[in-house]
Amino acid sequence: MASELHKRNLALETAISDSKFDDDGRPKRTGTLMTASAHIITAVIGSGVLSLAWAIAQLGWIAGPMALMIFSFITGFTSSLLADCYRCSTTGRRNYTYMEVVKSNLGEMKCKLCGLAQYVNLVGTTIGYTITASLSMVAIKRSNCFHKEGHDAGCHTSNNMYMIIFAIAEIILSQIPNFHELSGLSILAAVMSFAYSSIGLGLAIAKITERGNHVTTSLTGVAIGVDVTSTEKIWSSLQAIGNIAFAYAYSIVLVEIQDTLRSSPPENKVMKRASFVGVSITTIFYMLCGTLGYAAFGDKAPGNFLTGFGFYEPFWLVDFANMCIVVHLVGAYQVFCQPIFTTVENWCCHKWPESGFVTKRHPISFPSCGVCYVNMFRVIWRTVYVILTAVIAMLFPFFNSVIGLLGAIAFWPLTVYFPVEMYISRAKIPKFSVTWMWLQVLSWTCFIVTLLAAAGSIQGLVKDLQTYKPFSSAS
Question: What pTM, to 2 d.p., does this model score?
Fold first, then answer.
């Protein structure tokens, strides 16, 4: 009898292990440490790395690298807290999104506040990536123009056509059904991010070592004087902090990345290791790009060090670096917009379950590709979303101001506040204990930094808008 029972249990365990579904009934997840790290690197190394030379130029040799390290440590610490919240502490049930994690640990009201912060930032990030990708495409054309006409030629080019090209590519890629299908795209994007960062580093080193490259750097950054007033120095320094905060903004998609991992070994352990790998690698790149970029350009460091034309030659290498940026941002755009797509589509399916337009999938046969199932609502909604982000990018094509504002908006609530509050709730840390006190000090300090960085970025945006005519952006 015991032998028979053992055989039956063994058969049941084998059936479960061979199943194509996970414990929640969804298709078995296949993500690993490598794919999660690739997703993180894709999400983290993006527009942010391009502005770090400018950010350190505003802050100087002391405050600049120090700010990078502080944001790195805070992001790594709070990401480990957030990774532990993927499964419910009592039932072990999975939470598929950041909002579900907050709802499970902190309740409905804070879930709504989290959703507001998360989706505003996700939308803003996709707009920021549209701006950055178009600038890189324009830089390729201008680089070729400078090579032919000379470095003093204007070579002014409209950004709008390139935003449209980027949007068309994203409309096609946005039809990828869900986040789990993005691993290949993320790995490619991660490789591209290493490529253009490495090229930027190489060009910066070459510029530092070339004769006649006399630049001004200092411990405190851009000097107050003829070109910069004390007020402008303060505003630009605050905006620089926002740019650095944006460079580490990936907490908003951490849960979605963790939901791609296979269940063994435990997802939280793998995610913590992936976060450590991802944040460590990106911090090394950030430190090198920021400091070497500042050493190469000094106080005149451009807002985007690969499109600001501190580098002209070799023009083909500048072109290749900018093409890598475009390919990377094509993938990063999808990493950030998939949570938006999923949320809206799930809500609509729940709201109108009987609607064939919303729920029905139509088989379409493609030569050499087999049958693809297409949902008309998904096609139309995702296309409209990409078009809207492109139109807004055309209205506000300001790289540093937009990047700084997005970083400020996302940093405190999503990277610090919610992970800290959920940790306090799950660990049942008593109020006014030593641990509770230092966590609150961390949270409130980051809140004040966020407000100051947002103020600096808004001031920069207002200043840019004073001389800008909509839809006439040219580089």
Answer: 0.77
